[in-house]
Amino acid sequence: MTDVRPLVDAVHNTQAEREELYVWLHQHPELSMQEKATSARVEALLVEMGFECSTFAETGKVGVLENGPGPTVMVRADMDALPIAENTGLDYAADPAAGRGHMCGHDMHMAALLGAARSFADNRDEWSGTFIALFQPGEEAGGGAAAMVADGLADALPTPDVVLGQHVLPIDPPLGFGTIAGRMTTAASNWKVTIHGRGGHGSSPETAIDPVVIAASVITRLQTIVARESNPHEPTVVTVGTVHGGQSTNSIPDSVELGINTRAVSDEATTRIVEKMKRIVRAECAAGGAVKDPEFELLDSVPPIINDDDATATVHSALKDYFGDSEVSELKPMGISEDFAILPYAFGAPYCFWGWSGFAAGAHGPSNHSSEFGPQLQPTLDRGTIGIIVAALAWLKKG
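The chain above was modelled as a monomer; its predicted structure follows.
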């Protein structure tokens, strides 16, 4: 069995460097598919470490470190921030006036992976195989994983034997790890739906066809998909997250745009929900006398994360061997969605995605996407970095 201690000891020797990197990433949040400064710093560090670095989807970066015969392990970190002003009170908080922040922890993901990459690069005598560090743009709103795949990712890189990923979360055990075999997240789709009416003066509604009223009926009726058309034992969510229409209070607009999100346990369930969503929107538009059929634009979609049983057992065992039984738990399926699984599917590779806690309060810490989400810098950064190392070394055994 490969001894993890040399690579872990190297982590402790680079603590100041890694903490400076994390603070810089935290203070320079960039939105989906706009991660130019972030991307440039990631590339500079990978090249300096000796990785062969490639670019995909303009800001995505992939570093490949070949180190003799053996398996190929790919580890992914996402890069983008959210359009949410930070309100953590941290002394290294991002400027709230910028209106954006790393309120989902992607800065921690990048810093942990770069720290692990440094340990692998500096301790090549301790492992054998190929280590791939993948930094993905646009997880939050840009379809970044799909964009990297469309840009030729799978054809340009060695096929990994396993793809690994982790996400900092408010989970128990506090500052520990959580794994799950099988389904971890939900499938999701995001839609822009346009309802067409006929504009007019608010004082003469009889001369117009009000798309706002139609939209209100749609918003209410969509919830019957969950309440009356879905199996209560299968998590199903339909959210109308945005409503845009009109410019003045005394005018009836020509159209209204709805931003609709669906979440389900599988891609097949998503298809059924979307069919019901379209049926309801069309029916309400017909009932309201809309001047033409509604328009449906798929913005993006992601499959559920369904962790491979064997890969998850390997990661779970590796984490427990290093951190101890009490530090690693089994997660329950979660309602969140994310596009990680698109990457291993492109290669036909098994994968494992796990959570690590960023809070001494555990599950009672601030939630991801909250303006108050700010993981404890330490020991979160060290543990996330070491977690990648011990998991990847389960495959990259020496000799």
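The mean pLDDT is 96.
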